[in-house]
Give the backbone structure.
Amino acid sequence: MRLDPDRLRAQFPALAGGAVFFDNPGGTQVPQRVVDRMSRYLLHTNANHGGAFQTSRESDAVLEQAHSAVAHLFNARSPDEIVFGPNMTTLTFSISRALAAQFGPGDEIIVTRLDHDANISPWMLAAEDRGCTLRWLDFDVEDCTLNLDQLADLLSDRTRLVAVGYASNAVGTVNPVGRIVRMAHEAGALCYVDAVQFAPHGVIDVQDLDCDFLVASAYKFFGPHIGALYGKTEHLTSLRAYKVRPAPDEPPGKFETGTQNHEGLAGTLGALEYIASVGRGDGANVAAGAPTRQALVGALELVVDYERELTSHLLDTLASLPEVRVFGLTAAADLDRRVPTVSIRVQGVAPRQAAERLAARGIYVWDGNFYALAVTRRLGVEADGGLIRIGLAHYNTHAEIDRLGNALADLS
C-alpha cells in the first residue's frame, strides 16, 4: 500500500485554505478527527477525575484510552509508563528536578549542541543547583551529525545522565539513539531522549532503545498542544515527585501534577486514531477502532516512505538554486539519517525577510533559532538571524515544493 496524500489532505480543514504549511516542526495542522474528539469531550464528558458520577467515569475512560494509545505509539510496556503534561519542556523540567535530587557535587551530566534548548537548559540548571559538571557533546558543522567518538571520551563513572535528541529540530539529523543509550548504560548513566521532532516521522520503540525516559509533543504529530513522557516503571516508581499530598503515590498520577488538560488528552487520542487509520487504509472512518501498535507502525512506515520522496525532491530543488545553502545531510544515501526538516540560508536575504516574503506568497516557514540556540551558535548564524526552516509532513506535496522553489528563486 502507498500513502495517498490527496485522500489524507481532505481530512485537514486548515489545508483547504490554500496556504502551504512548511512550518510543521513548530506544530502540525490537525485532522477533523482531533477537533471532533475534543468537541465531543467538552460537550458530553467534561468532568474532573475520579468522580462517582457518569461524566467523570466517562472522562476517566477517555484519559485511560489516551494513555494506552501513547503507550502503543512508544511501545511502552504499560500505560502507567506514560505521563501527560502541558508540553515537553514542562515535563522535562519536572523530571529533571526529580532526578537532580539524586545528583551531587562531582557528578556529571552530558548534553549535546545539536539539541533543542528544552533538553539542555533543564539539565544545565539542575547541574548548577546540585554542583554537577555539565559536559557538552559537539557536532560536525559540515554534516550536522554528533561526534560519537567524543561521547566515548566524555562518559565516565561520574556520568549520571546523557540527554540527547532523537532528531534535530533545526537541521533534521536523526541521531543513533540506540547506540547512545547503550553507551550511557555501559557507563552507569541514565539516558533522556527528546523525541519531539522524530515522533511524526518514524517508528519509536522504547523497549528496543532501552532508554530511561523519552518525551514527545502531540502537537507535532497532528494533535493539540500537550506533551507526553515515557519513563521506565522502575524510575517513575522510585523517583520523588513534586506534587500535592492527596495526589496518587504511584505513576503516572504522581507526576501528572494538578488537573490535566482532559480535552487535550482526548485530542491526542484522536490524533493517534487518525494515524492508525492511515496504517489501516480506512481513511476518515471514525469508527475504525483503537489505535493499535500494529496500525500505528504500519502508518508510520508509509509516512516514512512518502516523506523520503518529498525530502529528496526538496533537496534536489534547493540544490538547483545557487544562492541557497543547505545545512546538514543532503546526499540521497543519507535520507534515512534525517527527518524532513531542512534549514537553509539565502545569500543576501536575512532569514526573517525571506520568511516574510514567502508568507506573502502563502508559504509558511520558520526563521530564527527555533529554540535550538546551541545549533545556531555553533553554525555561526545566530548573530545575523539564524536559519530558514522548511519542515515537511505527510500532508505536503511535490507541487508545494515546486511552489517553494519558484518563490525562493525570486528572492535572490
